[in-house]
Amino acid sequence: xxxxxxxxxxxxxxxxxxxxVAAQLKSLINVRLFWIGSSSGMDRSLVEEEGIEFFGVPxxxxxxxxxxxxxxxxxxxxxxxxxxxxxxKKQKAVLLFSKGGFVSVPPCAAAxxxxxxxxxxxxxxxxxxxxxxxxxxxxxxxxxxxxxxxxTKKFFNKKVREFxxxxxxxxxxxxxxxxxxxxxxxxxxxxxxxxxxLLVLGGSQGAKEINDLVRDALLYLTExxxxxxxxxxxxxxxxxxxxxxxxxxxxxxxxxxxxxAAELVMGRSGAGIWEWAFLGKPMLLxxxxxxxxxxxxxxxxxxxxxxxxxxxxxxxxxxxxxxxLLLDDINxxxxxxxxxxxxAAxxxxxGTCGGAKQIAEILAEEIxxxxxx
Length: 373
What we know:
45% of the residues lie in helices and 17% in strands. It has a seven-stranded parallel beta sheet, sandwiched between helices. By secondary structure, the chain is α/β, with parallel strands linked by helices. It has 14 helices and 13 strands.
């Protein structure tokens, strides 16, 4: 049996697209998959739920700024490298696919040291530090770099561009069977087909800023919409559910069905927005921004805005989004069906890229070469 390693993690945005590729790959070729991820956090539970064997390694965050934490994380990264190398060697991996995130760097480095081909995918408009580092291991081993956006290539030098394939962002296969009726049934709205749904998401961990906006605007939002709100498992929340307001700490297998039922989706602009686009949803985006981020979500949001698939709220620095302006924007969509349809069509156009299937086909071809070799 051919053994293939996957790595990446830290957030759902780094794990779910990788799982989408894994599922596609399994449908194309008979291989054994295993995943190398962070020994702490959500990585293990998400991966093992899909029936993929998980190996945890120590991981340290990659920071572009000075912090005393960098000193300790050097040791974690080093430990992660040696632990990953031992795993790859023992499991006899012939290829490594990385979905990025800081946890992916030690396994990619370990794979390169063992001459295992490294393939990596970048979800954001501009490459993160992990992808820039992992690109070196791709070149060294003859792998490939996959990007979600065509423009991402411009951030790499000419030599690296030769190793880039634009694939779009992988979307989980479950979204192919998204059923609005199932979403309404889950929400208790199966007998109320006239209820319009606004889905609010703050990413897999939730977002305090978005939660605060919902709190301030809820009375007005529920005049038009049934508000379905993923608050985040780590966020404190005390507004009770009602017929017009349905909060959830985290939505898992029901998410595609709920999203299919939603008229409008509001939230952050990480990799998850490609799932929204896959279902052709008009979007209201509030990107994570300010001094604690490299600005990748702002860039993602701007791309969708420029494609007329989303309205975006760019406030200055860490200043809060104006609730009144947000409500005005939501009402502009609510009142204008032609506008919603136009934005939905633009969103769907972005979301129908090759994604997981295209990446899996390239990986399958590489694996066949390994078999022949």
